[in-house]
Design brief:
Blueprint (H helix, E strand, L loop, with lengths): L1 E6 L2 E4 L4 E9 L7 E6 L6 E6 L6 E3 L7 E5 L5 E6 L8 E7 L14 E2 L3 E6 L1
Parallel strand pairs: 2-11
Antiparallel strand pairs: 1-3, 3-8, 4-5, 4-9, 5-6, 7-8, 9-10, 9-11
């Protein structure tokens, strides 16, 4: 079985920072692309960031560019999302996701495995 477990969410004031982590276990290859999505109340789940499983390629959603950074541990089994200069509109449940291949993609449908999510709340 494949398991993805997010952590690091919480309550932060606008302008602050949080670092989310996602630990993968089970049948997850270290060559699989890993990404982050988020879903705010009343909105669709949207792409935030992804890192390739085979090289250093990363992509970011428009809302994340310049503020968020995605990275992998040396083990390549854990992915992080460093979120700086947080805004109230960043409030959402953040989900870790894994593809079953190395290419970095941004579409929800391209990700096979999902975590349960971690809540991020940014107060004004």
């Amino acid at each position: 079985q494949v398991h993805l477990t997010e952590s690091g969410g919480g309550l932060v004031q606008a302008g602050g920072s949080l670092r989310l982590s996602c630990e993968t276990s089970g049948r997850v290859w270290d060559t699989y692309a890993l990404g982050w999505f988020r879903q705010a109340p009343g909105e669709d789940r949207e792409f935030v960031a992804v890192v390739s499983g085979s090289d250093t390629t990363t992509y970011y959603g428009d809302s994340a560019k310049g503020r968020f950074t995605i990275s992998r541990d040396n083990s390549r089994r854990t992915v992080h999302l460093q979120m700086d200069n947080l805004k109230p509109e960043d409030t959402a449940i953040y989900y870790c996701a894994a593809r079953d291949g190395p290419v970095a993609r941004t579409e929800k449908s391209q990700f096979k495995y999902w975590g349960q999510g971690t809540q991020v709340t940014v107060s004004s």
